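Figure 6 in text form: structure in, sequence out.
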């Protein structure tokens, strides 16, 4: 059966890339409508789906062709990570609040709102009977059937003396997502910041909502939350981008090496095309 939330929940703050105040209110969704953004700029609710993706530079954006919602992946990650199928997301502004740079604020709000089951609505899932692979340069995704549930193995690798290679492997449940994935924060390299700001990105970025990596030090408010916080954040992003398939994963093992938003979206498209819907 499908799920939504029991009660509304609101989060306010500043958007990461646009740097403007914004507010999201999560609302229960009665129909089998998936994740939808509701805003005064849209004539009808905008479904958060692959065919609405407008850009994948430093975040995943969705559009109705005229107006765009930026950086939807952390919010969607929280919804998918907690096993919520249908959610209306009322948004004021062009981008959800960055909060602390992780999905924790969204996940906590959704968790507190409580899960509501919809016994009369059938839940379809994505699953695999064989192996699927996608390789582009040093980016690699492999997916295969898995009797353990939904397992992710993710490798983040960056040639920096304080970063290097981080590998994580989790079999995720909503409880595990909340504790192991949701708190991992966005990070950026200080040498890129100037260029990002010139490109109109990271305008709301600060040490309140990102971990900043400089040549000789990593600055993270309160210290790093996990030894492999960067790999965990990449997993958070991947879960959010895969949510754009509109279907939860079932009994699947996904290995992702050096993923990023563009690759995540391409892999989500491949998965939707090749996997079985059951
Ligand atoms: Zn992210």
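Output sequence:
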């Amino acid at each position: 059966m499908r799920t939504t939330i029991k009660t509304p929940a609101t989060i306010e703050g500043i958007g990461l890339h646009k740097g403007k105040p914004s507010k999201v209110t999560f609302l229960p969704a009665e129909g089998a409508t998936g994740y939808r953004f509701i805003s005064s700029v849209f004539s009808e609710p905008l479904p958060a789906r692959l065919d609405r993706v407008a850009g994948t530079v430093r975040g995943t954006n969705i559009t109705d062709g005229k107006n765009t919602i930026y950086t939807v992946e952390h919010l969607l990650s929280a919804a998918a990570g907690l096993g919520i199928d249908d959610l209306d997301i009322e948004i004021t502004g062009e981008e959800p609040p960055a909060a602390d740079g992780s999905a924790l604020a969204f996940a906590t709000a959704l968790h507190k709102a409580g899960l509501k089951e919809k016994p009369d609505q059938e839940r379809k899932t994505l699953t695999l009977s064989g192996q699927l692979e996608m390789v582009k340069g040093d980016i690699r995704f492999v997916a295969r059937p898995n009797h353990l549930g939904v397992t992710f193995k993710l490798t983040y690798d960056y040639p920096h003396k304080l970063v290097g290679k981080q590998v994580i492997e989790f079999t995720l449940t909503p409880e595990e997502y909340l504790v192991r994935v949701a708190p991992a924060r966005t990070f950026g390299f200080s040498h890129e910041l100037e260029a990002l700001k010139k490109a109109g990105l990271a305008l709301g970025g600060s040490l309140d909502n990102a971990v900043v990596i400089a040549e000789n030090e990593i600055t993270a408010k309160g210290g790093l939350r996990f030894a492999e916080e960067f790999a965990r954040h990449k997993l958070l992003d991947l879960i959010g981008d895969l949510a754009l398939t509109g279907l939860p994963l079932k009994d699947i093992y996904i290995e992702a090496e050096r993923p990023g938003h563009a690759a995540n979206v391409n892999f989500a498209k491949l998965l939707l095309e090749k996997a079985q819907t059951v």
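Caption detail: The first strand starts at residue 2 and ends at 5.
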